[in-house]
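Q: What would this chain look like folded?
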Amino acid sequence: MARKTKKKTAAKKKPALASAKSAKPARKMKVARARNAGRAAGADPKRVSAILAKLDEAYPEATCELRHENPFQLLVSTILSAQCTDVRVNQVAETLYKKYPDAKAFAYATPSELEMEIRPTGFFRNKTKSVMGASKAILERFGGEVPRTMEEMLTLPGVARKTGNVVLGTAYGITSGIVVDTHVLRLSKRLDLTRNEDPKKVEQNLMEIIPREKWIQFSHQLIWHGRRICHARKPKCVECNLEPICYSKDKTV
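A: My prediction, written as structure tokens:
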């Protein structure tokens, strides 16, 4: 009787092993589908190379348009630029950094006074908290220096990946990722480089198809193109050197 029981047990195990083996291809297919999620047909390597060449042709000297003299000023200006134009931030910065020259000055500022200084940039109460909080963190945890890694940048109040990428890329030349602001998000979709809506997923898609050595410049160039030519409502497609390889549904030509 004991032998029969063992045989039955063994017989039961075989289908279980078979089902486990058959499950592996299914898991691989799920992983592959997850990786391809949001990828677009326009992300073909030859087309991406053509887009990069066109951007180099149009904007060979594109750079961050936030005026700054050091990484800390760039950090503050980038925080202030949320839902605000760079032009307005630069106007505020002209007097702001004379009154608050360093992290210590911002960290121990009078909140109500700082709010009035940055009021023209909008959302001034939240931005005041972020700027003061980031300044204190830089003083207390990083010896007064803006950190040089994304992991450390993300521990600062008011800092997400976009701000981290702006500061690391522009101030330090560190390719930590690709800046995905409103312009990069819009143009990446128009150029069919991604089909995602979430900035984090868009950044992941772009990082997979754009050569790492181009990440910083690509961000600047796409932002410049979005501000000058590829506007949200009425893109100037007639003036766009990317028009021949762009098949966006909202083209104006």
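The mean pLDDT is 90.
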